[in-house]
Structure formats: structure tokens, C-alpha cells
Design brief:
This protein is mainly alpha-helical. The chain has 3 helices and no strands. 52% of the residues lie in helices and 0% in strands. The termini are far apart.
């Protein structure tokens, strides 16, 4: 339980008896009831929330959807063409 060995569990038990004494059964029942209510609330919350896991598109759906697009969309350049600056006549060697 929680990565505790037998020695640690005995130590926790002794501390619990020292702290709560004869009220230990009442405290344990109370903790158990609180844990049950917590689990029930968590289960209720999980049932109300729907998990929408986005699926990654496979190659076939990507290819079939790209056939619908016009290939002329890529014909126009988005940036101006690069034109080198004119060479100075003085710098020609």
C-alpha cells in the first residue's frame, strides 16, 4: 500500500492508536465513507464528461481530400521574385 513496507505500516498503526485511541473505529468508518463518496462523485463526473480523442488522419484520407483542391493554388507566388541588384560598371574587373 503506497509503497510502504510492513515496518512503516506498523508504525502508522501505532501512531493512529496513540492519536485516536478508542475512537479509531469511528475514524476509520468516517474515512471509508468519505472515500466512497469521493469515488462515487468521480465516477459520476467521468460519466458526464465525454472524451473526444482527435484521431490523426491517415494517408488515404489526406490524399483523397487533396484531390479536390485545385493545383493552381500553388502556381501564384506569395512573395515577390528576387531580382539581384544591378552590377556597377566600375566594379567589373
Amino acid at each position: 500500500m503506497f509503497g510502504m513496507g510492513p515496518a512503516e505500516m506498523v508504525l502508522v498503526g501505532i501512531v493512529a492508536v496513540l492519536l485516536f485511541g478508542s475512537r479509531l473505529p469511528e475514524v476509520a468508518r468516517s474515512l471509508g465513507g468519505s472515500y466512497r463518496q469521493f469515488r462515487a462523485g468521480l465516477s459520476d463526473l467521468q460519466s458526464q464528461v465525454q472524451y473526444d480523442v482527435p484521431s490523426t488522419p491517415d494517408a488515404t484520407s489526406y490524399l483523397s481530400s487533396s484531390e479536390d483542391n485545385d493545383e493552381d493554388d500553388y502556381a501564384d507566388a506569395a512573395a515577390p521574385k528576387f531580382e539581384p541588384p544591378p552590377a556597377d560598371e566600375d566594379q567589373t574587373a
